[in-house]
Predict the 3D structure of the following.
Amino acid sequence: MNNRWIISPVVRATEKALLAVPALARLYMAPYKTVVQKEIKLAGLRPGERVLQIGAGSIPFSAIYLMKLADVSVCAIDIDRGAVRRAREWIRRLQLADRIQIEAGDGRSFPVHGFTAAFVALQAEPKREILAHLLRAGPDGFRIIARQPRKKFSSQYSMVPKNWQHQGEIKQPMITFSSSLLFTKNGVGAKPQPTG
Ligand SMILES: C[S@@+](CC[C@H](N)C(=O)[O-])C[C@H]1O[C@@H](n2cnc3c(N)ncnc32)[C@H](O)[C@@H]1O
């Protein structure tokens, strides 16, 4: 059986349910602080940049940590309009709406004009098409960070194609994903900072 159709709805439902208990929602976000911190270093993000995050979910923790830890402004998109509505409300409650914009959109086609980097959530799919779009539409030096699922979860999450050459990688000790990969359009742009 292909568990993708089980795991993804469960995660989406969990995020939705946790919003009813803000303390639990914050607890759910916490492990991703280190994940995003490493991704910020890998991408070499600088304060003031404007970044796109693909796959906001109902609790847009990646967008929140990107904004807080890197001092960037973020547009987080989701293909699911219910998630967009809930994420907007959560951002409004946290009083972060001036720095984090939540929009309905598909990572396979969302315009990248004005963004310097994109961060792709583990559950965003299909990764091949999303990355192909970002690499095609982004300017030279555009950085893309994508979370690569562990091999044992390859039936549940869309994988970054193995034979696609990435310019950087940082290990992530998470149950479902093992690393974050850096792709840089035409191999130019901001030099990634050393990762710890
Ligand atoms: C459950 S969330 C987890 C993300 C998490 N909240 C974060 O901040 O990283 C993953 C989301 O990706 C969305 N998604 C999947 N494929 C997508 C695509 N092609 N474009 C935009 N969003 C997508 C799903 O609708 C889902 O809400």
About this structure: DSSP finds six helices and seven strands in the chain. The chain has a mean pLDDT of 91. Residues 117 and 137 are 12 Å apart (CA to CA).
